[in-house]
Each structure stands twice: as structure tokens, then as C-alpha cells.
Amino acid sequence: MVAEEAARAAAAQAEVKRLADLETQRLADLEAKRLADLETKRIAAEAEAKRLADLKAKEAAETAEAKRLADLEAKRAADAEAKRLADLEAKRLADLETKRLADLAAKEKAEAEAVRVAALAASAAPAEPRRLSVPPAGAPSLKPKRPATEQALAEAGGPTLLSAIPTERPAPPALTAPSPEVRPLSLPRPVGDFIAERTEYTAGRALDQAGLNVLKADFLALVEGSADGTHHELTTPDGRPLLIHFERTVPVDPLKASINAIGYAPSTDGAVVRPYLQPVSVNVHVMCRDVAYAFPGQERGRFAACQGDDGTWRMARATNIAANPV
What was the pLDDT predicted at 259? Predict the structure, then answer.
């Protein structure tokens, strides 16, 4: 009986140990699987980070390459334009030199011909003076020829007949009464037209209208979309730089005109009632931008560009507070 009880106790203890070993093995397997999953996730995260870094580096390289190509193209265009202008200037100087040499050659030829003619005349002069049988005629007069009517009257009767003919002359323009004229009130000038005018004035000659239209469009695009405090550089149709600086943008509140409506109404007692209506003043906000421009070495100035109801940017007076000059 005691042996059976000991055997059962040993069997129960062995079963408990077996179950504990199984639980320990299960927990070990779970921990190994968790660690394996963590390692897999870490490797995947590192691979994703490397892929994103490679993609960002590739995009940066593509952006740098695109900028390099754009800079090369801009430099090539600038070099071509500079070469074209240099060729035009060289051709102009060559034409001037050719004309100068041709004029000099023509002058030398004319002087040589005059010397030759003088020598021929001196060699052909007679030894004795030539005696004329009749006196020579007088030298031709350098006075302007008299009018035919005045000459005929002078030949017919002299100055006494001139007073017999009435003289009629038109009235001088200063004595005529001009018709009344009212000049139309013109709107302020668009800023694009002003920039085009200053470009032609500083160039000293008429420029290509298509190039001026492109310059005006570029300037208006800067006025509409450029931020305050930014500097820009445009190129005129003749290749000169035009510097633009936007100082600040301020809202201007011009007061809208109003009319007081006054009415009169008689009453029974003979008094006169004068009611009047005072409308509320309305402020219309207009955005104006202080703009500074400069043609280096030639001209610089400031003005305000104000946008009207129709969307057109027109000229106005700039504020007294100026930012850094261009």
C-alpha cells in the first residue's frame, strides 16, 4: 500500500515536472518568435529608411542637375546675346570707318583734280593780255529775284502805282478768337506704360515694341505676385538691366464723395420744415505698392502702383517713408 502511494506520488510529481517543462518551452518559443518579429520589423524599418534616403538624395541630385542645366542655358543665351551685340557694334564701327575712308579718298581726289585744273589753266594762259572790243557784262547779282507783279509795276510806273492797289492780308493767328475747348480729364497712367517709356528714354532711341510688351508683362506679373522687400532684375529689349524693389504695400482709404439730400415741406402753420439726410461716409480700400526702380548708371526713381476697380495698376505718389534704395 505504501509502495503504491509512493508510486502515485512519483507519477504525479513527474507529470507536474512535464507540464512545467512544456510551459517553459512554450514561453521560450513565444519569446523567440517575438524577438524574431522585432528583428524583422527593425530590418524592414531600416530598409524603408534607406529607401527614403536614397529617394530624397535622387530627387536632390535631379533638382541640382536641372538647376545646373538651367544656369548653363541662361549663360549660353546671355553669351549669345552679348556676342550678337558685340558683332553689331563691330559692324557699325567698321561701316563708320569705311565711310570715313571713302570720304577722305573723295576729298583727296577732289583736291588733286582742283590742283590739276589750276595747273592747266596757268599753263594755258596767253602771254599777252586779251583786248576786248566791247566792255564785259556786269557780274551776276546775288540778290533774290523780285516778284513778277512787283517788277511789272515798277517797270510800268514806279512806286507811285503801288499805293493805288489795296493790300489785303489775313488776320494774324493771335487776333482770331479760338473756339472753346474742354480738355478731357485723363486717368492716371498705367505703370506698365510708364516703365516702357522710361526704358525707351534711357535707351535714347525707339525700341522693339514686342520686346517692350514682354517687359511690361513681366513687370506687371511682379507687381501682382511679388512679396514686399524683394529685389528683382529684368532685362530691357536692348540688353540693359532694370532693377525693381518692392518696398511695402499699404491700404489707402480715399473718402467717397457724398451728397446731402435736403427736402422742403410746407406745414399748416406756415413754417417750412427742412429735413436732410446725412449719409454715412464710406471708405473704399485701395491697395498701393511703393515701388523703386533703377537703370544702373542712368536713372532711378520711386512711385506707387495702385490697383483700380478694373484691376489696372496705375501711377500714384509714393509714401514718404522709403526703404533701402535699389
Answer: 44
Report the alpha-carbon distance of residue 8 to residue 245 in Å, rounded. 102
What does DSSP assign to residue 177? -
| Alpha carbon distance 270, 281 (integer Å) | 34
- To which H or E segment does residue 237 belong? none
C-alpha to C-alpha distance for 209 and 198, rounded to whole angstroms: 14
Contacts of 319 (CB under 8 A, 6+ apart): 248, 250, 290, 304
Which residue type is seen at 149? T
Lowest mean pLDDT among 18-27, 41-50, 269-278, 305-314: 269-278
Residue 117 CA from chain centroid, whole number? 62
3-state secondary structure of 97: helix
What span, in angstroms and rounded, lies between the C-alpha atoms of 292 and 305? Answer: 10
Which single residue is written with the C-alpha cell 534607406? 50
Cβ atoms of 191 and 223 closer than 8 Å: yes
Residue type, 13: Q
Q: What is the pLDDT of residue 258?
A: 43
d(CA 271, CA 265): 9
Summarised one tens digit per residue, pLDDT across range 69-89 is: 999 999 999 999 999 999 999
* Predicted local distance difference test score (pLDDT) of residue 189: 86
Q: Which residue has the cell 524577438?
A: 35
pTM for this prediction: 0.37
Radius of gyration for the chain, computed over Cα atoms and rounded to the nearest angstrom: 51
Q: What are phi and psi of 255, to 5 degrees?
A: -75, 130
Beta bridge partners of 234: 242
Residue 126 to residues 44, 120, 129: CA-CA distances in angstroms?
124, 12, 7
Q: How far apart are CA 216 and CA 239, in angstroms?
A: 15
| Cross-strand bridge partners of residue 293 | 244, 301
| 227-235: long-range pairs with CB below 8 Å, 24+ | 228/289, 229/323, 231/326
